[in-house]
Amino acid sequence: MPKLRRFGWIALLFALACGAEEPAPAPTATPEEPPATTVALRDGRRGMWVLCEGSQRVLDHPDRIPRLIETARELGVTDLFVQVYRGGRAWFASSMADAGPYEEIRSETEIDTLAELLLQAHGAGLEVHAWVNVLSLASNREAPILRELGRDAAMTDRKGRSVLDYPELELPKPDSEYLRMGTPAVWLDPAAPGVTEWLAETFAELVRAYPDLDGLHLDYIRYPDVLPFSPGSRFGVGMDFGYGAPTRARFSQDTGVVAPFGKSLANANRWDDWRRERLTETVQKIRDAAKLAGPKIQLSAAVWPYPERAYLSIFQDWRGWIDDDLLDFAVPMLYTRDNRLLRYEAAAYRGGIGGDKIWIGLGSWLFAREPETAREQLRILRAAGVRNDALFSYDSIVDVPALQAALVEETRGGP
Fold first, then answer.
1. How much is the average pLDDT of 323-346?
2. What is the CA radius of gyration of the chain?
3. 242-270: pLDDT as tens digits
């Protein structure tokens, strides 16, 4: 979801991750009485991701908001995931993040476009979730959190190298000859001192500033992925992260044993469990802070579509987050061209942990040249009994009129 370098087939899994001179017209309908032109799903909910730095940049200009609302109605969308925090930069008023994008838009338009979007979306009966990239800073080595907490806030790999020193944010040689960062970025370490607290306060500030927000949508709430995948550190192969000196010291203090490092595999299973727990703790603290700021706020997350790999390789126990009520719902990003795989995974989600708390994310952008396949994927979900889904993304859909038309027709129950 959020600018992304792509390597072969990995592009199919991630995509991962915002004025006009006059304000847009005020809404004419209340959330209790959506306009008659709204196309409702027969059963369930539909989300749609809206990029802050995509082709449409809706938050840059209030005049772009009505088209988003109209498109959402036509597609049967009930919930908008609107990206407002990316690369440590904020499209909302913030004292914690770099609020440069928000301040520039406000200076040019004299309008808080996120507030205006909330007003118009609620008038159309849509819910709005603030989409935030949690542990990825994209390529921003100068993000406020790093200036405040220092280099130790960034991820360190098993060999003791900081991602801040990676050339072009890729693994250095000789590792780069046989390993690849799945999503090259400056990554934050959730177990490093102060990181989780900083992020929780940043997002609580967002919820306080916009009390009408319906939800907070977490993205990049995981450890970095490296290709090929390794199922944990105990095998001593591949590459993994979180080995900063302060983090390893915290592990030793918590457990009474040393962390594996370099070629050592000592206490590897316990180390993996501990890192998984620290990521879950980050979700918990963000939820607690957000709920304190806005008790009715929903918390959701865009997550890896393969739960076992997410659990073992990037320490993202999203099924546990659902099971323990840390998330109100999760959105596995099942971006694939393989319809057989889509059917298999949809059936597994439907029968596993989560049930209707799982919304399946579809990579609609993959089918710009084959809109009928995008329609077929919606049919596959319905046949599997999946009630809730999400489309990635608004930008890619409206950029291709034929794709948009196909999705609208399928939503309306066309042939």
1. 97
2. 21
3. 999 999 999 999 999 999 999 999 999 99
Please give the sequence-ordered ranges of beta strands (E in DSSP) within 347-397, or none if there are none.
Answer: 360-362, 389-391
- Break the chain into its structural domains and give their ranges: 8-411
The pLDDT score that the predictor gives to residue 183 is 96
Task: Return the exposure string of 106-140: e unless at least 16 CB atoms fall within 10 Å of the residue's CB, then b.
Answer: eeebebbbbebbbbbbbbbbbbbbbbbbbbbbbeb
CATH of domain 8-411: 3.20.20.80
CA dist 70 → 54, 65, 212 (Å): 18, 9, 20
| Omega within 30 of 0 (cis) for the link into 332 | no
User: Sign of the C-alpha dihedral, residues 306, 131, 221, 53?
Assistant: positive
> In terms of DSSP bridges, do strands 226-227 and 180-181 run parallel, antiparallel, or are they unpaired?
antiparallel
DSSP string computed for 188-251: B-TTSTTHHHHHHHHHHHHHHH-TT--EEEEES-SPPPEESP-S-GGG--S--B---HHHHHHH
Residue 298: its H or E element: strand 298-303
> Max CA-CA distance within the chain?
64
Q: Which two tokens stand for residue 258?
A: 């040393």
| Average pLDDT across the chain, whole number | 90
Measured distance CA(29)–CA(38) in Å, rounded: 12
pTM: 0.90
